[in-house]
Amino acid sequence: MRLALVTALLLSLGTQRSALAQAPTSPDVSRLVAGLEGDTPMLRDLEQLTDVIGGRATGSPANLRAVEWAMARFQEAGVSAKREPFRMPTRWLERAASATVQGGSGAGAVRFTPRVAAMPFSKGTSAAGVSAPLVDAGIGDSAAFARLGAAARDAFVLVEQGELKDVDGLFKEYADAAAIEQRAYAAGVKGVVYMGSRPNDLLYRHNVAIGDKNTRPMLVMERDGAARALRLIRAGTPLTLTAVLDLDDGGAYDSYNVIGEIRGSTKPDEIVLLGAHLDSWDLGGGALDNGANVAMLIDVARQMTRLGIHPQRTIRFALWNGEEQGMVGSMGYAASHAAELDRHAMAAAFDIGCGKINGFFTGGRPELAARMPAVLSPVAGLGPFTQIDAPIVGTDNFDFMLHGVANLVANQEPASYGPNYHARSDEYDRCDPQQLRLNAAVSAAVALGFANAPDRLPRQTRADVEALMARTDLAEQMKTFDVWDGWAAGTRGRRQ
Fold this sequence. Notes:
Layout: H1 2-21, H2 27-37, H3 42-53, H4 61-76, E1 80-88, E2 93-103, E3 110-112, E4 116-118, E5 130-136, H5 142-148, E6 156-159, H6 167-186, E7 191-195, E8 218-221, H7 223-234, E9 239-248, E10 253-262, E11 267-277, H8 287-306, E12 313-320, H9 328-336, E13 344-349, E14 357-361, H10 366-376, H11 398-402, E15 407-412, H12 417-420, H13 433-451, H14 462-471, H15 474-480, H16 484-489
Parallel strand pairs: 5-6, 6-7, 7-8, 11-12, 11-13, 13-15
Antiparallel strand pairs: 1-10, 2-3, 2-9, 4-8, 5-9, 10-12, 14-15
């Protein structure tokens, strides 16, 4: 099947070349795009990262293997690279999770064992588990908790969720969970259990909204098992849930970003940064989130080196760790490279799977959005491209935005991203190899467009970032993703 996919890819790229040829281009961009369209090692890299190494939760042995793998890929390509350490505040890994639901008596007795996944930053249990009543919390809104009243205290509340269809639904799920968990904590619950939002009983991981400040067991239960439990409760059968969560939730430790670099020819102290996160959650192979974009950026660096392309500014290719646990790796980079941030011309994040890049989020900086048509003109045939001039939280552009550095996030068509996000199904064959190569061409144009531009945008001040928060929903997004407190305390982002 993969041979057939590669054959179809090469045939399709032949039709795309004619579209690219109609757009104005520079010789370097043209050569680089042509190189990326060939039979490069990119797909083989992705297969090895996802099928051989697999899920790569930060702090796991697989994640350390991925760091060594990424270093080797850069070095084999002739790209200068190094591991850069940063401090993770806490370790969280699931060893095993199970649940038993039981209730009723006599002929009406019921007992079953639905599959569950611990939510990152859930608290673990003893080997015997934690048992508590399982109660119906509806959709987790204020009315549902008011209806439950005292019954929610010291109980597991089961929250019903609709089936996830797309990326918009995913962001709604995150926002809803933050509010649901606040209500649950206020009600004194023993823990929260979410009905899985994915079809076919797929399990997945979402962070607990308040991160490592959480003090309760938190679970996702397979969709059909949760539906069965809700039917029983609503038919009048009282149920008890016993959850057994074996977790590694130790203290702080060191992790590593991998930074590849192609040094600039005339402005080597000025930096264009392109990043994708190397870590993933561990249920699937982490192809869409975010192995595909890791393999893509490695290939862009590889082809630039192979073709002898020398950008004016230095281009850094950052493979981040700790992204899934609060964008910790990119925060660590911003701290350790603080003296260089004035010279960062742009920082871009690629983190929405393999779907077609149809434009960029430009962070609420109209002057940055205005530059994008010229930057993307060499690959205009792969458009149209539309810029969304709004800040976005949830990936590794974030700390650069807080530090006032011009930042981009590739906006990608969702394709199969939403339903497979953080799920067991996030595997190699969910990625469209044809589109991944075309996205590589777009990212290459962005890299060289900013590296060779005659000037660069100035870094913003803290007051500028505060003004951005005042006119957009940036502060609300930060609170939803539990990254507000560091900014408010002055420990994250620019201080002046």
